Fold these 4 entries.
Entry 1:
Amino acid sequence: MLTTHYLEEADSMAERVVVIDHGQIIADDTADALKAEQAGDRITVTVAPGDVATTREVVASIGAELAEAVSGGGVDISFRVDSGPVALPGVLRALQDKGVMVEAATLKQPTLDDVFLNLTGRSLREGAEA
């Protein structure tokens, strides 16, 4: 058994992770399962402003939690998917098939910090400061 506030350490060393908040167990699973369930992989594609509507249509059939932000001359469209490394090539192909020119694409896989934030609504650092 390892007790730690260092979530990177827990991720790399623990077979199972138990998250305790205010004395209550709020999660108990493997690190990978918690990250997939609680945070999920996020894909962000940057497209031209004229391609936003088409990109929204494609993303609606693939992911959830759509977020948009203006980025330079393009628009970043970010969304959650299951198994990002598997989903990313399909997303890029679907956009290409619809005539969307993707300027950039990134994949962010979650950390246990993301899981803790999702479960408790605060970062571990905020909890320590309180």
Note: Residues 7-36+111-129 form one domain.
Entry 2:
Amino acid sequence: MEILWYVVNRDGRNPWDPTWARPVDQHYLQALASTIDSRGYSGALFATQPTAGLDPFVAVASLLHFAPRMRFLLAVHPSVYAPTQLVKLATTLDQASGGRLLLNIVNGHGSFAAAGVHLNHDERYARCDEFLTIYRGIMAGETVDFEGRFLTVKGAKAEFPALQRPYPPLWFGGISEVAREVAAKHIDKFLTWGEPPPETAEVIADMRRRAAKYGRKITFGIRLNLILRDTDEEAWDEAQTMLDRTSDATIAETQRKGAAQDAVSQVRQSAFHGGERPKHARDLEVYPNLWSGLGLLRNGPGIALVGGPESIAARIREYKSIGVDAFILSGNPFLEEAHRFADQVMPLLQLDASWKQGRQDPQPFTFPKAPKLDPHPNALAAAG
């Protein structure tokens, strides 16, 4: 298995509450990237919304010097890109990073209207199908002519290839019927939001069947939050504190925004807590050491692993046993919790170091020596 951390432009002990939020600037991102790189994580997901947050390509390009080993998983919303535009960005950054780029294709989470995109849920995935057909063809070295319902290109090709062939691996989040079909056709790693292992096992089995229809095999990752402390009791106390210190207004606004989304993953996350604050945090323990209460406080992936090091490691190993080989984790604040997890849980896991193999460090450019030139005949004559 491999462990990735999480990077977004919001951090703090409880970043959904301005009282507990922490400023995130370029220097903070440098410190976070350096920590992830030095503590043994194989990479990080740089998450973003279609129009809000940091630009993942610019952010990562600025951090390469501070993180020379890790891989960079960039959230990409194809609804706001042209295929050839993403080809240029991906090939350039893959070259600059020495082949350390990964792309996480996102279609169903966030507000697209602000980006001028007014496609409904299924239309976004249908456009993504066309997008990835074009993108994968170009990245594989083809000259692509394509005419579809949403996209038409003629003579599209890449003149600046990626280091990773045929292209940097494609990761993908989306659980709806149409999302699963697009993933089965195009994606290398299917990424789920946290759900209990039995539900996750059902998704994995279904996706393996779907991929087999296209003669493909895919692997699996999961996005989970962490509340890690020295003991289970201390971790559940922290979950209770998180719940208690969050205002009713914050919870209501979070649930209002979640209900306004058309992402099926968000609907499934909300079903675990029902939108109601319990008196006791542990009333929302949906599986041993899995807490759905974080979904009351923040939208997106709302399941947290809660416990001491041994309990957290046991749940991760259980996910591994059903086919999950990549874990994208985070705890708040990101910086301190990245150290805590590396100190307390990583030594209990058998981590896969194969991601380090085949990586090419970009070689520094050296100017060629100027050739020796014979003096101009007129200069020789003048000298004589």
Note: Residues 138 and 228 are 44 Å apart (CA to CA).
Entry 3:
Amino acid sequence: MKPIDLARLFLLAALWGSSYLFIRITAPVLGVFFTISLRVIIAACALGLYGVLAQQLSTLKTRWLSYLLLGLLNNVIPFILIAIAIVNLNASIAAILNATTPLFTAIVAAIWLKEPLNKRKIVGLLLGIVGVAILVGWSPLLLSLSVILGGLSALIAALFYGIAAVYARRRFRHNRATETAIGQLVGSSVLLIPVTFTSIPNTVPSTEVILAVITLAIACTAFAYLLYFQLIAKAGATQAATVTFLIPVFSLLFGKTLLGEPVNFGLIIGLITILLSIWLVFNTKH
């Protein structure tokens, strides 16, 4: 990977890793649904403006139903579930659990696309289960109903990301990547508009919360999507996918240094185990 692409990779990981931090700041104040609605709608407006200027909205009218479905699978449901996970757990643990997305993608691809699960992939999937068990059972948080709810929310979000990835691979194989990103955000916004008006908070949020929402939408969503697809174009999809390994590391770093989230030996072992399982699945030849 060229130095400029490596810089893009680390910047993208830092942006997506920090998104958990900003959700942790905003969701307890604004509520999960209003936070995610603002994130998606503001990002869709920003990225939509880019699409108009770059003339990359040619399929929006003809494939609107597909974009609605992709937005539901890849934004609306997982974003809401991740926010629920962050509120009930913390930013770093939610990010580590959500890093299991490639494992769920492999399972969905095996069922949907009939892609074979060889021995190395199976070992990776089993190791991922062990990593999740270590992380949840040996985390610095006391095991409770809310912690279990948060853990399940993060894992179900990862499952929906896996379903969305396979669906996008089948439905948007010949689409321009940026156009797919814009289409799914516009579709997500349409679905979330009713939620926005029914979940408006009663009090005016602080400046810190407002800035956190704007940063989450513009930097961590709209700009991050453009950066991601630029990285795919320049370095390739496989190289871009390695951002999965870095996101939980940045989230752990930000959570510890900026939010004072607890870190113990179990969390570190769980993170290493999950990342090893992802590596086994990533580095498997068909």
Note: Residues 3-282 form one domain.
Entry 4:
Amino acid sequence: MKNFLKIKLILLGILLFSCSSKNKTNESGITKIYDFNDLTEWEDASLNTNQNINYIIENGNLKIFTNANTWERPKVKTIDKFTSGTYIWRVYIPEIGIGDMTNISGFLYNDDMHELDFEIGYGTQIVRNQLMAQSDDLIVYMTSQGNPYQSIQKKIKRGRWYNLSLEIKVNPDGLYQVNWTINDLILTTLELTYGNETNFNIYCSVENLKFIGNHIPQNNNYALFDFVEIKRN
């Protein structure tokens, strides 16, 4: 009997360790990592995919893809919502078809006026000309969709892994301040007109959207998400 109970306890410990390793939390409970060995704690949020699932878990990465000549918008979001903290998406940005209106994004969403984005794509020719983009450059749009609205565009090289980070702090006046950071370099900062009363779902997406290119995508496009990390303040 004692041996049987010992075996049960060992098996229980293995099960608990296995579950916790999918969403890792450090000893102080400050950091949480979704490592995309599966989609535990995420749910589908796709649009225009005719109920197709345009994402898979592949070699420990979340691969999201769109098909040519469609307006597919596959995406997943966390079931939980979050407030202030630092949110990091580890993303592989591949080549995107020339002029394709395909958008690779890690973003936080409450509603259309309370949304904070990294959006990466080929970019319109007007924006590419303004930034003097080279053939191996894509354009990253760092945007607050409202309260207030701001959108800053920078160049980013294709074919590389990036850490995209939104750092949200609460200022003494109770309002959020956001830093958009890529690979530890702060690229833009904005104080919002709202604070911790507003919470967000975390999203990963690859969407065919008209604002970020010159024509309906003529290629199948994709991105890889290695993990999403949350550092709570």
Note: The CA atoms of residues 179 and 189 lie 5 Å apart.
